[in-house]
Amino acid sequence: MSQHYLRGKTAIVGMATAGIGEAPGFSAMELLGQAAVGAVADAGVKLQDIDGVFAATSSHAFPTMSVVEYLGLKPKFFDGTNVGGSSFEMHLLQATLALEAGLCDVALVCYGSNQRTAGGRLVSMSEPQWHETPYKPRHPITAYSLAASRHMAQFGTTREQLADVALAARGWANLNPEAFARGPLTKEQILSARMISDPLTAADCCLVTDGAAAVILVRSDRARDLPGKPVYFLGAAGANYHRSIVAMPDLTTTAAAESGPRAMQMAGINQSDIDLAMLYDAFTINTILFLEDLGFCPKGEGGNFVEGGRIAPGGELAVNTNGGGLSCVHPGMYGLFLITEAVAQIRGDVGERQLTDCNLALCHGNGGTLSSQCTAILGSAATL
Amino acid sequence: MDTETKPVGPQATYERYLAEGRFMIQRAISTGEYVFWPRVVTPQGAADLEWVTAGGTGTVYAITVNRTRHGSWNVALIDLDEGVRMMSTLPAIETAPIGARVKARIETTEDGPRVVFDLIEEDAA
Q1: Whether A178 and A269 share a structural domain
Q2: Into how many domains does chain A fold?
Q3: Same structural domain, A94 and A192
Q4: Residue A126 within a domain
Q5: Coil, helix or strand for A303?
Q6: Is there a single domain that holds both residue A192 and residue A336?
């Protein structure tokens, strides 16, 4: 396989999170600022070295403008592509393109939200779809419930299997001191949780938390001169065919079936090489859909795949080792936290939940209602 | 009246038909493709769209029941026999099996008319 010229050209050299869980009294931008300052310090660069800015939030219509003003930056390149929670996997690709083209030298990818303490509900800037409004869908959950209903009818997927996803996430969260939802959780508790939108219960839904995250990227030649252990960009790709769930051609197959293989092709790897899969688990059905669409198991077998603790601590495939959106953090857009966990695992920085030999991580972001799908592959120096 | 002859976009046209009690969908003259929801071009790129009366029969593709303190209602995706999908609801019942056959009717609500569906009895068992 010929190597894609972008493979390994950039690296994440700094990373920080802020306000994970609850951060009362802080605005979304204040939390974002804390994460950015933390990432800059972690990278061993100065804030004013940043000349590329990539941002998306649920509370800023012009996110890069707000970020550069708040942080006092004067970037030469910026991109505020907003494809929901998958924005940040796409930003890694855009930052790599800009860095490789010499349009900037130090790129900041950042996000911040105070959705929990500001109101406790998922906030979205998205406009209602006029052809959906008369039927009063409660997005995002209605869309994911429709997909779950179809997956169950088509493949025999069960609520018990959905519960296995939530159970695995809690298992990982219990190894992560930063995770917001920790403590014992039984399958019976998950199955008896309040039904919100059949077949999804409260236990099938992600958290609503506060939280911010930021990463710093530079070209790989420069990364070697910085103090930290670089985590290399190996590949990324996006795929997007629809906006509204009614326009999704097949509710049991997401565009991850296209973004995943393209990202892996750029990285020159396949599923069996991956040590860690960070999958955007806004709802339990997501993890099952993405395990199938990314090729970790055949279509329709995701439910069987997650049984028996296979994606839980000690299982065969490490999935969402921070506890995921279901038990760790979900401030509205979760995509950048997939990346920060992958970076921390590859660096070997995560204590009790550390995987042995974590060299290759796949981060899969999801945006909208199973709409935008973006996959990014990160690796240690050993993978170059 | 003069205002009635002025051209309006596909959304407004659909809503005007609905207000007249007609469930109309678009079809491309050149390719025969049906389109829903209404727009100015088909996914294949045909822009010569005309309005035709929907047959009104279809199949439940996916369904959920939203449950709140203020009540429950189902939201369904219906595949019309023309081959297009729409979001709708089956207001007469709590829920229905995926694959059930349904028939459209226009229901008037506080927010205006909308297309909803009922189970076709002979197929309901």
Answers
A1: yes
A2: 2
A3: no
A4: no
A5: helix
A6: yes
Half-sphere exposure of B56 (CA within 13 A, CB side): 14
Q: Which residues contact A250 (CB under 8 A, 6 or more apart)?
A: none
Question: From the DSSP assignment, how many helices (H) and strands (E) are in chain B?
Answer: 3, 8
Peptide bond before residue B37 is cis, with ω within 30 degrees of 0: yes
Residue A279: its H or E element:
strand A276-279
| Placement of tokens 């990285």 in the chain | A267
Residue A2 lies in a domain: no
Tell me the pLDDT tens digit for each residue of A18-42: 999 999 999 999 999 999 999 999 9
| Cβ contacts of B94 on chain A, cutoff 8 Å | none
**Cβ–Cβ under 8 Å, residues A100 and A6:** yes
Q: How far apart are CA B21 and CA B115, in angstroms?
A: 10
pLDDT tens-digit readout, A251-268:
999 999 999 999 999 999
| Chain Cα centroid distance, residue A354 | 19
Both ends of chain B: CA-CA distance in Å? 49
Q: Which residues are within 8 A (CB) of A33 and not within 5 positions of it... i.e. 6 or more apart? A: A70, A71, A112
Question: Taking CB atoms and an 8 Å limit, are B114 and A135 in contact across chains?
Answer: yes
Report the gap between the CA of B114 and the closest CA in chain A (Å).
7
| Confidence (pTM) | 0.96
Best of A121, A130, A135 to mutate (most B CBs within 10 Å, chain B):
A135
**For residue B99, which residues of chain A lie inside 8 Å, CB to CB?**
153
Say yes or no: A146 and A101 in one domain. Answer: no
Task: Indicate the residue type of A231.
Answer: V
Q: Are residues A173 and A282 in the same domain?
A: yes
Percent of chain A with pLDDT over 70: 99
Report CA A143 to chain centroid distance, whole Å.
19
Residue in the structure block whose two tokens are 């297309």: B115
C-alpha separations of B30 from B10, B46, B50, B54 in Å:
18, 7, 10, 18
Q: Which chain B residues are closer than 8 Å to A145 by Cβ?
A: 64
ipTM, 2 dp = 0.94
CB A73, CB A53: distance < 8 Å: yes
Q: Above pLDDT 90, what percent of chain A?
A: 97
The single residue listed with the structure tokens 């999935």 is: A319
Q: Tell me which residue range forms the domain holding A353.
A: 139-203+236-378
Q: Whole-angstrom Cα distance, residue A129 to residue A103?
A: 37
CA-to-CA distance for A153 and A61, rounded, in angstroms? 39
Q: Which helix (H) or strand (E) covers residue A53, if one does? A: strand A52-55
d(C-alpha A271, C-alpha A46), whole Å: 37
CA angle A311–A288–A189, rounded 5-degree value: 70
Collapse the DSSP code of A238 into the 3-class scheme (helix H, G, I; strand E, B; otherwise coil) and give the result. Answer: strand
CATH class of domain segment(s) B55-125: mainly beta
